[in-house]
Design brief:
mainly alpha, two-stranded antiparallel ribbon, transport
């Protein structure tokens, strides 16, 4: 018995070894390296960084640019996370019921981001938002609304990126929601129908409570994902106009690869790691207690 258990344990460790090595090399080691680098001043030109202790963190906490980019990042997450979850939940329920137009729209419109790179998506949306011949302004003109400058105006650029982000994440969220919906035992819905429960009662009193683990997972996943948004901003706006779309990761990138202040950029990364961990813990403490597991 002991030999068999040892063999099973050995096989298990060997199976998780490749993933563990990838996690160690590309996640754990870089985190500790970045934490150490944040206590140095280094412009990548000098062979030896200069140790300065917590000076980078002191400068960071006194930086108006850091707080502005952090505020825009939170605003962006507030605009995108609830909308992505709500739209995808509606489509998931429609797809579960076999609504034909919802299936067609999902396959042709919302599933594309799952199999398309973010760079390609960003280029397409740049044409959509073009102020002269973009699709968005063509639609506005057709219904009698004045065209907008979208990515070229400070007051609409962040909202424009948020609209694209919602569309980008709906396809993935629908897949996760559908898995959660289809895992709900069908006999619960049948019993509710026998008792005279209508569609909305079944939805809000049976399916949604049993779907809370899925909702909870997507809430944490999307929050972390949106707080780290970078690629579409780098392609579409470079943080402009007038820094209106310079989110925290873009702010970090500029200090690292434009100003070559690697220690200061590492301190931004470590502060953001702490903020993400704190927000995740708060979500687990506030929302996790309301999750109903079967």
């Amino acid at each position: 018995m002991g030999t068999s258990r040892l063999r099973e344990s050995t096989v298990g460790y060997l199976l998780v070894l490749p993933a563990s090595l990838v996690l160690l090399v590309f996640v754990v080691i870089p985190i500790f390296y970045s934490a150490g680098l944040s206590t140095f001043s280094w412009d990548m030109m000098r062979p030896q960084p200069t140790f300065i202790g917590l000076e980078n963190y002191t400068n960071l906490l006194q930086s108006e640019g850091f707080y502005n980019s952090l505020g825009r990042t939170f605003l962006y997450a507030i605009l995108t996370v609830p909308a992505s979850m709500a739209v995808s939940l509606i489509f998931a329920f429609l797809l579960d019921k076999g609504v034909r137009w919802a299936m067609t729209m999902y396959r042709s419109f919302f599933f594309a981001p799952i199999v398309t790179s973010t760079v390609a998506i960003s280029v397409v949306w740049m044409f959509i938002y073009h102020p002269d011949y973009g699709t968005a302004n063509s639609i506005l003109k057709s219904i009698g609304i004045a065209p907008l400058r979208w990515l070229n105006a400070s007051d609409t650029a962040l909202i424009s990126l948020a609209i694209m982000a919602v569309w980008k994440h709906v396809g993935f969220c629908v897949v996760i929601y559908l898995a959660g919906i289809q895992a709900i035992p069908s006999d619960l819905e049948e019993a509710a129908k026998v008792d005279g429960a209508g569609l909305f009662r079944i939805l809000f009193q049976i399916k949604l409570p049993l779907l809370t683990p899925t909702v909870f997972f997507l809430l944490i996943y999307l929050t972390i994902e949106q707080l780290q948004t970078f690629t579409q901003i780098d392609v579409m706006t470079k943080g402009g106009p007038a820094e209106s779309t310079e989110l925290i990761v873009m702010h970090l990138w500029k200090y690292a690869f434009e100003r070559f202040q690697m220690g200061y950029a590492s301190s931004i990364a470590m502060v953001m790691l702490g903020i993400i961990l704190l927000l995740t813990w708060i979500q687990m403490w506030l929302v996790g207690r309301k999750v109903h597991y079967q």
